[in-house]
Amino acid sequence: MFKCLYSCYQKNKCNYNFTKGRKLPGVNIRVSKIQNFPFIQKAPVIPINLDSLISAITGIASPIIKEKIQRNETVIKLLKQFNLDPEHPPADFSGVYAYALVEYGVGKPKPFLELFRREEIKQAFRKALNHNNPSILLSEVDAFLDAYALGDEIKTLGIDIRREVAAFATVFIEVAKRSRTPADVLMNQQIGSLHKRIAGIQEQLERLPTLEGMRTEMARLAAQSVETRGGASLQEKKCRAIALAQQMQGWFETLGYRFEKYEVWEDNYFEWIIDIPARRNRYDRILVRGIEGEAGLADVMALRQSVEAQRTDEGWLVTARRISRAARDEVEKEENRHLDCYTFDELIDQDADFSGYLDWLEAEVKRREIDKKYVPLACTKEEFDSVTKRRIGVSRYDERDGWIDGYLDLWLDDPAKEHISILGEFGTGKTWFAFHYAWTALQRYRDAQKRGVERPRLPLIITLRDYAKALNVENVLAGFFFTQHNIRLNSEVFDQLNSMGKLLLIFDGFDEMAAKCDRQQMINNFWELAKVVVPGAKVILTCRTEHFPEAKEGRMLLNAELQASTAKLTGETPQFEVLELEKFNDEQIRQVLSFQAESTTVEQVMSSPQLLDLARRPVMTELILEALPEIEAGKPVDMSRVYLYAVRRKMERDIKAERTFTSLADKLYFLCELSWEMLSTDQMSLNYRLFPDRIRRLFGDIVQEEKDLDHWHYDMMGQTMLIRNADGDYTPAHRSLLEFFVAYKFAAELGVLADDFIELAQGRSHINNDAVPVDYTWSSYFRRRVDEAGKILPSAPLRKFASESLENLRETFGKAPLTKAVMDLLLPMIDVNTSITSPHYPMIKILEATRSKTEAEVGYVGGNAATLIVKGDKAALEGKDLSHAMIIGANFSNASLRFVNFANANLADSVFTKVLATVRSVAFSLDGRLLATGDYDGMVRLWEATSSLPREICWVIQSGINAPSFSVHL
User: Fold this and answer.
1) Are 50 and 145 in contact (CB under 8 A)?
2) pLDDT at 339 over 90
3) Read out DSSP for 436-487?
4) Nearest to residue 892, comparing CAs of 871, 862, 917, 916?
5) Do β-strands 503-508 and 539-544 pair in parallel, antiparallel, or remain unpaired?
6) Average pLDDT for residues 443-450, to the nearest whole number?
7) Exposed e or buried b per residue across 755-770, where buried means at least 16 C-beta atoms within 10 angstroms of its C-beta
8) How many CB atoms lie within 10 A of CB 154?
9) What is the pLDDT of residue 549?
10) What's the order of all strands across the beta sheet hosting 314-319?
11) Beta-strand (E) ranges in 741-795?
12) What pLDDT is attached to residue 3?
């Protein structure tokens, strides 16, 4: 590996031969024999005193090198101190050795660096390179550690010596590759900073805790480097063979296969013998012959000869590229039944079978009709100044760039980028895009699989909605592989495939998994997922934009700037990017409508500005088409009412098709409560076995008989708004349907549901139409009474819903802050006929009911109610007495709070508008904790100086406040 990596970046010829060699235990790097070092032969030696160099490196105070920037500055300073050009290393062995020591050694323990200072170690390193025998270096290191007191001191450091030797060797190789003239560098377009390149490599190595991971990364870098130079020469092919060998060895070791001492390295192939456990104390001996190019008939014949000579049980011919038809036909013959030929991908298939998952992905995409109805999406990416971190512009990727698909294709080909976060508002098509892109990648994968050539990454789409708030990435992967798709893959095998660049991980719905988490848990969850973002990996994460209360914080987290105090990563953070999906434009709306409707209907929607605005969210187009009859009849149109009309038509269609016998109201209640359970517990599915328990709990005495329960059970499962998978798990057709039903439940519980929404709940069975309509609470309306014979007693019709008790609201409406999606759907449902400013308005009464209550008694009821009130009417709270009220987490942005009495109110985590009237003067309290502002309107306001939150009520002093001041008693 040493010589191959070095010589690939020397002249356009290869001056070495593969020869039989031995493995360096632990490091697992194979080295090809070096006939000569051109840079040693031709360049003058620059004498550098290693004693002085090591002393300078170890003399640096450790606090100086903790930060990456400070470390880089220190490295450059040391290189220049010893007359080493940071961009053009010397062309002799000693110079490269010294340069590599500086790049590698800054920040390393002094005793370990003393090891590399010893002349015998330096010469052992040189001898290992020249004689194609890395065991020389290890033997010398082992002998030194056993013979000298310094060895005992190094052993006490508790470091992995072999890993560190490999790390130093990697840095040495990179320096050796660049030990040429500037003209040579420019001809090969290697114009980037050498120091930055090495710093990046070291960051990657620091994030690889094991030797196996380091070896895989070295192989990946080797293959990546040689492929950047255009046509493949003989030396480059040999380097690729080395890279293949490294990956194969890592794979075999991960599977627990044992290597025998037998090894052969030649110009065009390598051979090993591995032992595979067959049964207790028995092994199958396999001769593995690896080649870089196409495996042909001659290779099969040579494999057969080697198997016969070594008397192994089987022989495998493995290539990274392709296998000729003649070779495949040859191993199918009866006399060659002990022989096989594989591409490396086909070899992986033997122990990592993803076929069941691939079939599922194909079926899921077709079930959703994503393959037929998907419309390409545009996206934007903010551009920031690298120094100031301020936004300087926005790039938009649309049809000209192949949409977001085109951007991701380029991202996949960029080895420096490992993770990308895709944000979008609810209903903008994140999940559809995730499945679409996974399906597109699957087509490429299966095409390569069919042709028997090297495959692209295998797309694994992992939905996060079913996982707990406190995420554990191992549990997520175990659930995906074992529970969901029955793939027998342990964590070590996954890690190896991930680091080898064989997988494309797509985590869909980060917000759905963690919507109810506190800020710290959200950060911890993100860094849990980031554990899989290792060198060689590619990871996509989708998330709702509104999941982050502040856009800045969200981007800080997704850009890996915001770290968790309890979640730790080794080394430098991964490389992250953030894209944001755009809503549909007019042409995209027309395209998606054309998949589902006649041209006259399409034009009808396109001619309505109101419908056109709603249709910009992909999720709304199908609902608009469902609701079209109501829209045409002149009924009000907004986002929530489109959901209402569509849901009602779906339910009525189920009844007409005799799929159900329960009433509209029963279905509504069941779906509202089921949706609330799913959203509040972050469990986005319900297995069919759990339906009876939910039905008993919700409908009480009327379904106690088993025969009745069976009817209700199958009736509720037969609704078209619920989708069932092969395991009998029911999920809503779209997450936004859950949010609509939860918003409906909240509006009813608050007693503010508008009349046209109430109509859906009035369609209940066993109603005494002769009785006077009455007001019910949501919880009491569906709890019908039965007589002694079990017969349901008729009840009075529903007039409207009354507010639930504060105690009941605490468990539902007040359990957590309202999400933006639920808020947006809830607002249009509120009855506007009752004045929101009236003291009898239900939400005002609820807000006042929180006065003198504890946080445990109220939760977020007060804060959510206050937010809804000012969203509906920004001046609704003016002049209200909310002293001692419990108003946690309210959003008062853009609200007018004139004359509101917030004295002794608990306003924790509430947000206030910072826009004031013309401020004429300010004053701070003596302790600096309070700020008083006097404005042109004659108002004095007190603020907490550190948080900018209101501290006391606002009151009128006079017309225009010129100079407020604090009394010493304040």
Assistant:
1) no
2) yes
3) HHHHHHHHHHHHHHHHTS---PEEEEEE-TTS-SS--HHHHHHIIIIIIT--
4) 871
5) parallel
6) 91
7) eebbebbbbbeebeee
8) 22
9) 45
10) 258-265, 270-279, 282-291, 314-319, 339-343
11) 774-777
12) 40
CA atoms within 13 A on the CB side of 590: 8
Are residues 284 and 332 in contact, defined by beta-carbon separation less than 8 angstroms?
A: no
Q: Please determine, for residue 273, whether its predicted confidence score (pLDDT) is greater than 90.
A: yes
Give pLDDT, residue 66: 47
917, with CB counted inside 10 A (0-12, 13-18, 19+), is middle
Give the pair of three-digit tokens for residue 338: 């002990």
Whole-prediction pTM:
0.65
| Alpha carbon distance 259, 256 (integer Å) | 10
Three-class secondary structure assignment of 712-733: HHHHHHCCCCEEECCCCEEEEC
Distance in angstroms (rounded) separating the CA atoms of residues 302 and 341: 12
What length does the chain have? 970
CA quadruple 532, 536, 540, 546: dihedral positive or negative?
A: positive
d(CA 721, CA 474): 32
Per-residue pLDDT, averaged over 622-645, amounts to 87
pLDDT digit string, tens, across residues 809-860: 999 999 989 888 899 999 999 987 665 555 557 888 999 899 999 999 999 9
Q: Is the C-alpha dihedral spanning 899, 904, 910, 914 positive or negative?
A: positive
pLDDT of residue 70: 67
CA quadruple 785, 791, 794, 800: dihedral sign: positive
Q: How many CA atoms lie within 13 A of 679 on its CB side?
A: 28
Q: What is the pLDDT of residue 547?
A: 58
> β-strand 270-279 against 539-544: which pairing, if any?
unpaired
Angle between helices 491-499 and 234-254 (to 10 degrees): 170
Contact between residue 307 and residue 339 where contact means Cβ atoms under 8 Å apart? yes
Residue 438 banded pLDDT, cuts 50, 70, 90: very high
Q: What is the DSSP string of 224-240?
A: HHHGGGSS--HHHHHHH
Contact assessment for residue 435 and residue 365, using Cβ atoms and an 8 Å cutoff: yes
| Whether pLDDT at 87 is above 80 | no
Nearest alpha-carbon partner for 572 in 625, 540, 534: 534
Could you tell me which residue, 719 or 312, shows the higher pLDDT? 312
More confident residue, 141 or 945: 141
Q: How far is CA 414 from CA 230, 237, 443, 555, in A?
A: 17, 22, 21, 21
For residues 591 and 667, what is the distance between their CA atoms, to the nearest angstrom? 33
- CA dist 605 and 33 (Å) reads 73
